[in-house]
Automatic annotation (TrEMBL):
Pfam families hit by this protein: YolD
Record organism: Salinicoccus kekensis
Name of the protein described by the UniProt record: YolD-like protein
Upper taxonomic lineage: Bacteria, Bacillati, Bacillota, Bacilli, Bacillales
Highest taxon listed in the record's lineage: Bacteria
Length: 125
């Protein structure tokens, strides 16, 4: 007869319980390991901040001033947290004091603040 079919009262209560969940303890670290592997894969894709020459910085500055004066839209490629991002925007102001470009996105009209040191490329549209 199978012990699962027997009533609980007739079973021997002196049977040892065993290790229970202790035997599964080494596998409790697996989510952290998977998280670390995912983070390492993301870090491999990231790039370091490119160094721009003085000529390139002057060209970016000139293009920003022209876009502001002519009230034209620009496409700015900027660096953030290891990745390059493009954004199309209308330049509202160039704040030299805080070294920021203030603009308004063309697609959703959201205000965007981009630091000068993060700008990699700029093209007037």
């Amino acid at each position: 007869m199978d012990y699962r079919d027997m009533p609980r009262e007739s079973l021997n209560s002196n049977i040892p319980k065993g290790r229970g969940m202790i035997k599964w303890a080494p596998f409790a670290t697996m989510p952290e390991q998977f998280e670390n592997v995912r983070k390492m894969q993301e870090d491999q894709v990231k790039i370091s901040r490119p160094e721009l020459s003085d000529d390139r910085l002057e060209e970016i500055d000139r293009t920003l001033k022209n876009a502001l004066a002519l009230k034209r839209q620009v496409r700015i490629e900027y660096y953030h947290d290891g990745y390059k991002f493009p954004v199309d925007l209308k330049v509202i102001s160039v704040d030299v004091w805080s070294m920021m470009v203030v603009g308004q996105r063309t697609d959703d009209e959201e205000m965007v603040f981009i630091s000068f040191i993060d700008i990699l490329d700029i093209v007037m549209l």
